[in-house]
User: What shape does this take?
Amino acid sequence: MDKIRIIEVKENILNNNDKEASRLREQLHAKKTFLMNLMSSPGSGKTTTLMKTISILKDQYKIGVMEADIDSSVDAETIATTGVKSIQLHTGGMCHLDAAMTEQGMNELGVDDLDLVVLENVGNLICPAEFDTGAVKNVMILSVPEGHDKPLKYPLMFSTVDALLINKIDVMPYFDFDMAKLKEYVTHLNKKVQIFPISAKTGQGMQEWTDWLKAQVDDWNK
Assistant: This one.
């Protein structure tokens, strides 16, 4: 019997997506618009952290937000209360966004007058890590209740992000969370990552995080 040939088609699909993502970044650079891809598990405090970030930066930048979910418009409605431009993206059951979907959302949002656009990706630690959305920087939120061992379980996600926010540090005394171990695991996977322990609820650490983000936006939009 002839040996069965196995063809890996996923690589070609991702290669095509990477080309689209690079093209989208070039367009954003020309427009002087910074796109940030924000990822996390459900319940990590992603929307709350984003709202706190917006409150700190909205007087310095024109900001837009794309909320991606399989269904519902709850998050977009919440973000709209901050006064920034926001839209909801429904993925039709897909657990991630790719570059083409992101570009479609940006066209609907209208980014010509925006300095900073945030894509709040679909909430999970697997699919979003596999696709380049065209973002300038990828940021992840891990909350203390999720545990410090998540990098061991989802290495791709932690290896692809530029910044990691450790949210809900105000509840650390109530959980068996080892910050030193978390940093050891993450930096083993990703030497370049910037780690920011924060509490979106109390505001602790938010200034350090937004200072970093501001420096990235200013550098991109020169």
In short: DSSP finds nine helices and seven strands in the chain. Residues 4-10 have pLDDT under 50 and may be disordered. The radius of gyration is 18 Å. The first strand starts at residue 34 and ends at 40.
